[in-house]
Structures are given as C-alpha cells and as structure tokens.
Amino acid sequence: MSRLLSPITLPSVAGDGLPLRNATFLAPMCQYSVTERDGVPTSWQLVHLGARASGGFGLVWTEATAIVPEGRISPEDAGIWSDEHTEAWRPIVEFIHAQGAAAGIQLAHAGGKASTYPALPDTQRGRVPADEGGWTAEAPSSNEALGLTPPEALTMEQISGLVSAWGVAARRADAAGFDALQIHAAHGYLLHEFLSPRSNERDDEYGGSFENRIRFALEVVREVRRNWPAEKPLAIRFSGEDWIEGGWTIDETVELAKRVHELGVTVFDLSSGGIGAFTGPVGPGYQVTLARAVREALPREGTFVTAVGQITDARHAEAILVAGDADGITIGRAALANPNWPVHAAVELGDGQEAFVAPQYWRASMA
Ligand SMILES: Cc1cc2nc3c(=O)[nH]c(=O)nc-3n(C[C@H](O)[C@H](O)[C@H](O)COP(=O)(O)O)c2cc1C
C-alpha cells in the first residue's frame, strides 16, 4: 500500500486521535454559494463536500467558515455564528461520515479582506459597497497593504470581542459534529494580518515586535482550545511566507508553529501569500519547502503536517510523503476537477480502486 492511501491517525492532545482511511485532505475552498447571504450552508455544500467524501478523501475541510457575519470574505460565504448554522451543518457532517470520510471545519475571519465580491467568473473584484449588501471591513491597521480600499483599524475592545467569538464558533463546530477544526491563519485574512509587519502597523501590544504580532493568534488558539474537545484534533493553516520584503517569514512561521503546538495545536497546513498580490514561486509543489521547514522543527510524535499547492499527480504526492517532507497531502483545484481524485490515485499507485470507490460506483473503471 502506498503511504498516500494507507490509514493514518491525526493526533490530538488527549485520547487516541482521529483515524483516517488515508492521507488525502480536501482543501478548504470557498464556494460563494450561500445565495441567501445568511451564512447558512446549502445543498451546494452538501453536494460539493459529499461528492469528495464519496470520492475517497480521508478528510474533507469545509470552505472558510466565518465566525461572525463581518468575517465573511464575500456576502455569499458560509458561516457558523448561530444555532441555525450549527443545525444546517449537522446533516452535511453526517453525510460525510456515512461516506467513510472525516469532516473538518475551517473557521475563519476575513479581517480587512471581508466584504469583497465573490471570486466567480462573472463578478466584479474589490469591495462590495454598503448599498449592495457590503459592510465595513476591520483589520489590525488601516492601510493599503491588502490591495483594497483601507479597512478600519480594530479597537482593543473589538479585538477581545473577536477572541471570544472564535471560542463560541468552536463550540458550535463541535455541536455540529465536526471531527477536526482548522484555524485559518493564512492568505491575508485576520490572523495573518496581525502576523505580517506589512499589514500590522499597530503601536500597541498587538503590533511591532514578533511577540506583539503573534499575540492575537495565541489568544485565539487558547480560546479555541478551551472550547474544542481535547480528543479532537486542532489544526492551523499558515501562510508560511508573505514572499514580500519586510513581510512575514518562514522562520517566524516555524517559531509560531512551536508556540501554538505548546498550546495544543497538533495539525499544520502550510500555504503562503495573501498580503497583496501573490509574488511567490509557482509550479508543482511550490509550497512543499514550507511544510518541510515546519515538519523538521516540530517533534514527529504527536504532530501532523500537510503540504498543499499544485500537487495534482499521485506519484508526486507519494514522493513528498516518502521524502518525509509532510505527513499528508491537501488537494485543492485538482479535486474541483475530479471529486474522485483519491480513487484515481489509488489506481495509479497500484493500490487498486476497491478500498475507496463508493459501493454505488463499484462497476466504474477508475483506471
Ligand atoms: C475556488 C477556491 C477557493 C478557495 N478558498 C479557500 C478557503 O476558503 N480557505 C483557504 O484556506 N484556502 C482557500 N483556497 C486555497 C486552497 O485551499 C489551496 O490552498 C490552493 O488552491 C492551492 O492548492 P491547489 O494548487 O491544490 O489548488 C481556495 C482555492 C480555490 C481554488
């Protein structure tokens, strides 16, 4: 059996961890499909996530799911800020489980990149104005680092309110039945905006030095940890590099990964960029170096690192795991194109399709 398709366990701080049927993860991907603009997931989320669960993924991550309405990237984003949201996510989680996959939720706050048009082919770009249902975006500082009209700077009171909101959302995610929770600290959204010196120009205890810039992230991690069962894995997604001069670096990411691991984060996914236009490297596996840096810095026992970014080929994915650069592989756009990506990978790696193909589709040839 290949490493990619062998069963694995996602570690947690208590209990035995979360067993997964293989090491493939569906990347969190915004679907811009909540047409009612109330954050309540719809049949689209059921079908999108359900198809990838039945397509063989070990774990499927939801799209960025907003902890408060103002934390949505676009008005059509999903959220989890009321009991109605919890109830709407529950049957989606149950369907994912029935397909043999685990269900993970990515909790998010878009910060200064909130209230923008959905990234669909036929929509505008930039901020949604108030008369079209937009709202005021809030970030650590009011500047143009994000490539949008400047957001408003958060007050100390608002910052502490947001920390609490992360905890409430974590409790709801548990109540909805999710098995794993990923804190979105990447891509120029709120947590990352505090980390990066380009977006964070505060001169109070939340800005300036490394210790001050990571303060908000540590507070959020502590609050989520208090509200999320110790038996369930807690994950975080970082932008390992801003890829811009004077930005957030991989050395800082490694140090922060160690700190949040001490606070109970056991699963790490390494993406990059998001403060302004992307200026990093492109090409197959372009972010694997970032996963490797975090993998090498953390104790192997009790931690799990996933690599993401233009990993489309099963043999490439397997090579990353065999080299020890990461423990699991997150698949984004390739899984939009092919919901059965893991089944096809099993065929390509010689494991056969039987283990992962949905029984209803057993007569299909995935070769
Ligand atoms: C349509 C789309 C929506 C995305 N939405 C999110 C998101 O909600 N949260 C997130 O962390 N990353 C998001 N991403 C980034 C992906 O999770 C992934 O990191 C990126 O696409 C690179 O992986 P890939 O080359 O396998 O697609 C999105 C990407 C796409 C294509």
Automatic annotation (TrEMBL):
SUPFAM superfamilies to which the protein is assigned, alphabetical: FMN-linked oxidoreductases (SSF51395)
Residue span of region Disordered: 116-144
Keywords recorded for this protein, A-Z: Flavoprotein, FMN, NADP, Oxidoreductase
GO molecular function, one term: NADP binding
Cited InterPro entries: Aldolase_TIM, OxRdtase_FMN_N, YqjM-like
Domain of life: Bacteria
Name of this chain's protein: NADH:flavin oxidoreductase/NADH oxidase
Annotated organism of origin: Pseudoclavibacter terrae
